[in-house]
C-alpha cells in the first residue's frame, strides 16, 4: 500500500517526529522512504532598494548555510532509517518547500507524504505549519501530518 514514502524534513524536532512515524509506516508496510529537504533560499530575501547591493559572496555564503542545514537534517533522518532497517534515499533540492514537496511526490510516484504539522514556521499558524497546510490542500498524494505531541 505505502511502498514509496516521501518524508519531508526541515531539521526541526517536529519534522524528526514526523520522520519517526513515516519510518514506522514504511517498516510496517515493507516500503522504502525518500528523505527530502527543500533548501528554501526565499527565506533570506530581504527588501532591497536600488542603493543596497548584496555581493555574490554573501549570497553564496547564505546558500551554503542553507545547504549545510539540509545536509544535517537529512543525515539525522538517514540515521533513523538505518536504525529502523528501512531502505532510504535522500534528496536536497533548492526551491519552494510546499510546491516542490508536492511536485517531487507526484513525479516520484510516492504513495504517501509524511510531514510535520509545525516546523520552522510554527508561530505563523495555529493548526498547521504553512508548508504542511499548503501540501495538504494541494497534494494529489495522501498526506500524513504528524502534529506536535
CATH architecture: 3-Layer(aba) Sandwich
Percentage of helical residues? 40-55%
Any idea what the radius of gyration is? 16 Å
Mean pLDDT: 86
The ordered H/E elements are EHEHEHEHE
Count of domain modules: 1
Give the strand tally: 5
Q: What ranges have pLDDT less than 50 throughout 5 or more consecutive residues?
A: 121-128
Helix tally equals 4
What is the beta-strand fraction? 15-25%
Order of strands, widest sheet: 3-2-1-4-5
CATH topology-level fold name = Rossmann fold
Sketch the major β-sheet. Answer: 5 strands, parallel
Distance between the termini: 26 Å
CATH class: Alpha Beta
CATH H-level superfamily: HUPs
Overall 3D form: globular
Structural class: alpha/beta
Q: What do you see in this structure?
A:
44% of the residues lie in helices and 19% in strands. The protein has 4 helices and 5 strands. The protein has helices at residues 13-29, 56-84, 97-107, 130-138; strands spanning 4-8, 32-39, 88-94, 112-116, 143-146. Strands 3-2-1-4-5 form a 5-stranded parallel beta sheet, with helices on both faces. Strand 4 (112-116), helix 4 and strand 5 form a beta-alpha-beta unit. Helix 1 (13-29) crosses helix 2 (56-84). The longest helix has 29 residues, at 56-84. The radius of gyration is 16 Å and the shape is globular. Mean pLDDT is 86; it is low at 121-128.
Furnish the topology, listing elements before pairings.
Layout: E1 4-8, H1 13-29, E2 32-39, H2 56-84, E3 88-94, H3 97-107, E4 112-116, H4 130-138, E5 143-146
Parallel strand pairs: 1-2, 1-4, 2-3, 4-5
Helix pairs in contact: 1-2, 3-4
